[in-house]
Amino acid sequence: MLKDSKAFSSFSVDDIEKAKDFYQDTLGLEVKTVKMGIDLLEIHTSGNNPIMVYPKEDHKPATFTVLNFPVDDLEKTVDELIGRGVKFEQYDWGDMKTNEKGIMKGDGYGPDIAWFADPAGNIIGVMTRDR
């Protein structure tokens, strides 16, 4: 029934213009404004359906990762994003904790990953690409 549907992700923000500036200017993504009664954003990434971002007056940031970006060189990507003003989250979950840059090593349990928040507080991840 749904297996052939072109699914896509969406999430809310509290300020659509701040979100557009962040995703377009800070992260360097292609972002388009779409008018559907209200202004929505479409974030375009290579080979994927657009991600929809919509304004929500009573927005509450997600307490989980809403979007992940697999990358070839995590250290380089984190350094570049830090250079663009992105602040990475620091987590300490016992045996699993982030280093000073905010990178958590998967050590066989999963990919190396680092998280940061968008201006609305939603959590975004960058991680090592599957090999």
UniProtKB/TrEMBL annotation:
Domain of life from the UniProt record: Bacteria
Domain annotation VOC: ranges: 5-129
Cited PROSITE patterns: VOC (PS51819)
Coiled coil segments of this chain: none
InterPro entries: Glyas_Bleomycin-R_OHBP_Dase, Glyas_Fos-R_dOase_dom, VOC_core
Protein name in UniProt: VOC family protein
Highest classification ranks of the organism: Bacteria, Pseudomonadati, Bacteroidota, Sphingobacteriia, Sphingobacteriales
